[in-house]
Design a protein that fits this description.
This protein has 88 residues and is mostly helical. The chain contains six helices and no strands. Helix 2 packs across helix 3.
C-alpha cells in the first residue's frame, strides 16, 4: 500500500487535536493516561506534540473515554481551522 504524504491542513489538524488532548489531560500523568487508554506513553507523547497527526480512530476513541472528552468535541477540534474561523 502506498502512503501519500499528508497535506499541510492534515498536519495542522493533528497539532490541534494533540493540543486539545494535552489540555484535557490537565496535569494527569501521561504514562497513567496512556496505560488506561491501552497505548504506549510514547504514542501519547507523539499525538500530543503533533508528531503523529493521524492517530488510529480506536486510539482517539479510547483517549476520549479516558479523558472524559466527547468524541464529537475532538472531531470538531480536528475539523475546525482557527484561521478560517477568524476570516469570517
Amino acid at each position: 500500500m502506498v502512503r501519500h504524504p499528508l497535506a499541510p491542513e492534515q498536519i495542522e489538524a493533528g497539532r490541534r487535536l494533540g493540543a486539545a488532548l494535552r489540555a484535557a489531560r490537565a496535569g494527569r500523568n501521561p504514562a497513567e493516561v496512556a496505560l488506561e487508554a491501552g497505548i504506549s506513553p510514547e504514542t501519547l507523547r507523539k499525538i500530543e506534540t503533533g508528531r503523529l497527526p493521524t492517530p488510529a480512530f480506536g486510539t482517539i476513541v479510547r483517549l476520549s473515554e479516558v479523558l472524559g472528552v466527547p468524541l464529537s468535541e475532538l472531531a470538531f477540534v480536528w475539523r475546525t481551522d482557527p484561521a478560517l474561523s477568524r476570516a469570517s
